[in-house]
Amino acid sequence: MNFKELIPVYRKQPSTSYKYKFTVFTPVYNCENSIKKVHDSLLKQTFKDFEWLVINDASSDKSHEVISKIVETSPLNINYVNNIENKHKMSCFIQSIKLAKGEFLLTFDGDDECYPNALEFFNNEYEEIPDELKPKVAAVTVLCEDQYGSRVGDLFPEDPFYCNTFEARIAGKIIGEKWGFTKTDVLRSIIVNPRMLNYGFVPESMIWDPVASNGFLTKCVNKILRIYHVGVEGSIMNTPMTARSAFGTVLKGLAVFDWFFDKYFFKSPIFFLKTIYITIRSTLYLEYPLKDYIKSIDSYFIKSIFILLWPFRKLMK
Questions:
Q1: pLDDT (mean) for 212-219
Q2: 20 to 30 A Cα–Cα from 23, which one of 124, 187, 212, 296?
Q3: CATH value at residue 160
Q4: How many whole angstroms separate alpha carbon 96 and alpha carbon 186?
Q5: Host domain of residue 267
Q6: Domain edge (last residue) among 208, 238, 268
Q7: Buried residues in 217-243 as b, exposed as e (16+ CB within 10 A)
Q8: Which part of the chain is the Glycosyltransferase 2-like domain (predicted)?
Q9: Total domains in the fold of the chain
């Protein structure tokens, strides 16, 4: 196994002319009871320059029937895709990047709601970014609350807070659920090997982290715009994870080592040591030999730790 071939790379693609300002992307899995409230939230938006891209990931309930009825009567610009085979959220997200006709891509889950001014606020916050900084800013991110009105996740340390999201995350400056859009041009410049999705669940950070590793910034604002429903059964976010998630965990760890280790190890050694531990422990679920991992790691330091800990990995819990 050549893990390196499966790690996404950033290659700037030519800019595209878009039909809309936003593509609001909703991945759906068994959301027959909640998708209407997503539609209602979008109907109430004060900013109208958007499309709603809905990808139904082979739901086993009546999501397809419910969405089809919405499409028939809704005044919104809806692009509905009904996947016959379940692909999982990461695959649907990559699918959405290719299909998006909006300059900004905003994921809005099938059991969420948002405030009527959400898209207007996002647009205004981007327009207020200084012109000299705009090319470096790939995203705008805000806060969430749960269905009971309590904020989910911590406030950002400044308002606005411009940051490299990976650096801010390992420094504890971005904690908890957040919500935001990313420039579609930037996302389309992240080249994904389709084989990456053939081995089980892969975390979305495999897309977000290349954005950070290539120097893009995110504008973070202390404004609650999304209502994030906690404890909802059957959503695409709550699909049970099994040993199939091990491959994605390992691939994520190897990617983090190659993307960030040299620059950030001395800033946050505990983070990287924990990542090494989790990555090695996850290899227990895979059948690849040590040499496959070693040849995928750039750092000789991490190579050495892998070799030292490999005989003891069955003791890891």
A1: 96
A2: 212
A3: 3.90.550.10
A4: 13
A5: 245-315
A6: 238
A7: bbbbbebbbbbbbeebebbbeeeeeee
A8: 23-122
A9: 2
